[in-house]
């Protein structure tokens, strides 16, 4: 037997050591489309959920200054004081939150995904339940597989609004928390303040924690803003857990930086798990985002609103589309008359150079596809024309 044969045999025998947890998780359907895009010549990529604008110069300068000043070591687990103070100041101006004499805490995390994972680890035991929207961000169901808990999908079709009435049908004595994402990935839906007040009241009445994933809180379009800001349950509750980030807002997704704020009893547990996993968020990135809250994003939002309108106009009269009011996604229905699943329609789109994501990646249904309009206008318009033609031909 050759050395390579021995290695192959050893690998095959040792593969039995992979945990059932790992075996239960498939690679992201989004990642598969990304890999496909890398092999295509001149694709029209409307699949990626990443802003297409550069990181603001003031943030680049702050990160470079931190590196040059040798601020490259570990920070305290919760984050550097300068960033924590900046986050509290921002929360104070938007939702009226502060430390509240220690009753509320804040921790800087390695991205919002890091915050979600740590929160799940801190809250869920095997057999517990947690409620997520359907459609959902692809990570949400995997939190159940990682922790042994059970994700309960809240059906939000056809308008994709995760209302209190819909949530209540999902609650049981085993429910630990309700996870809401607004603005939504993959739908672009933004809940109103009135809807959030109802969800807050429901969670309080039923004794479950409300977790609000607000990674797209600054990507909230004009018609959905209330008092100039994106609606948040934190304006009506001292008991919810907020998760926010910097990557989507400022185009620095690779910096892996977010933060979590809420009651100290849970934030302290999240910080404890961070200490033994991520240790701390990247130090130079923390310094880089300290000035971020002073960046004027209005030109970016105006550009993305105009792209949103291109999407709405492209599908008018040919299919159903819940008008996105935030983020940079549209969850588009495949017309029933075509007799195609989301996966089948996406395969036709890819054959025509347009990369989008099948709805089944985000949902128990496969009747839609997700489109990202975080793409240059010319490419976006070209891709939309092809998608529309596939629906009407």
Describe this structure in words.
This protein has helices spanning 3-14, 20-23, 29-39, 57-68, 81-94, 111-123, 139-147, 164-168, 193-206, 247-250, 264-275, 283-289, 298-315, 342-351, 377-392, and strands spanning 44-45, 104-109, 129-134, 150-155, 175-181, 209-213, 241-245, 258-263, 329-333, 354-355, 357-358, 368-372. Helix 7 (139-147) links the parallel strand 3 and strand 4. The strands form 3 sheets. A 7-stranded mixed beta sheet has the order 2-8-7-6-5-3-4, with helices on both faces. A 3-stranded antiparallel beta sheet has the order 9-12-11. Strands 1-10 form a two-stranded parallel sheet. The chain has 2 domains: 20-49 and 297-392, Aspartate Aminotransferase, domain 1, CATH 3.90.1150; 71-294, Aspartate Aminotransferase, domain 2, CATH 3.40.640.10. The chain contains 15 helices and 12 strands. The model has no long low-confidence stretch (mean pLDDT 93). Helix 4 packs across helix 12 and helix 13 packs parallel to helix 15 (377-392). The protein is globular. By secondary structure, it is an alpha/beta fold.
């Amino acid at each position: 037997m050759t050395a390579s044969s021995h290695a192959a045999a050893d690998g095959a025998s040792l593969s039995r050591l992979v945990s059932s947890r790992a075996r239960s998780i498939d690679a992201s359907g989004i990642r598969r489309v990304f890999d496909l895009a890398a092999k295509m010549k001149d694709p029209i990529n409307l699949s990626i959920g990443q802003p297409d604008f550069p990181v603001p110069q003031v943030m680049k300068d702050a990160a470079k200054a931190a590196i040059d000043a040798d601020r490259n070591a570990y920070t305290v687990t919760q984050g550097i004081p300068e960033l924590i103070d900046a986050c509290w100041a921002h929360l104070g101006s938007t939702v009226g939150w502060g430390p509240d004499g220690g009753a509320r805490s804040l921790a800087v995390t390695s991205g919002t995904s890091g915050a979600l994972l740590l929160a799940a680890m801190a809250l869920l035991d095997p057999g517990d339940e947690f409620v997520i929207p359907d459609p959902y961000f692809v990570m949400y169901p995997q939190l159940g597989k990682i922790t042994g808990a059970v994700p309960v999908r809240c059906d939000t079709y056809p308008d994709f609004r995760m209302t209190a009435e819909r949530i209540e049908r999902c609650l049981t004595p085993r429910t630990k928390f309700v996870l809401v994402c607004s603005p939504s990935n993959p739908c672009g839906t933004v809940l109103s303040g009135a809807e959030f007040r109802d969800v807050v009241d429901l969670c309080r009445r039923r004794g479950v924690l409300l977790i609000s994933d607000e990674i797209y809180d600054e990507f909230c379009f004009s018609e959905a803003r209330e008092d100039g800001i994106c609606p948040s349950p934190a304006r009506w509750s001292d008991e919810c857990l907020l998760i926010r980030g910097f990557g989507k807002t400022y185009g620095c997704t690779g910096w892996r930086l977010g933060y979590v704020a809420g009651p100290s009893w849970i934030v302290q547990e999240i910080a404890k798990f961070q200490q033994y996993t991520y240790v701390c968020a990247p130090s130079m990135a923390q310094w880089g985002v300290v000035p971020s809250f002073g960046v004027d994003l209005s030109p970016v939002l105006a550009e993305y609103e105009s792209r949103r309108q291109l999407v709405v106009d492209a599908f008018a009269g040919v299919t159903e589309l819940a008008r996105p009011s935030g983020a940079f996604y549209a969850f588009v229905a495949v017309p029933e008359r075509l007799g195609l699943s989301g996966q089948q329609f996406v395969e036709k789109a890819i054959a025509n150079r347009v990369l989008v994501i099948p709805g089944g990646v985000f949902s128990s249904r496969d009747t839609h596809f997700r489109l990202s309009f975080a793409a240059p206008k010319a490419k976006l318009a070209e891709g939309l024309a092809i998608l529309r033609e596939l629906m009407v031909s």
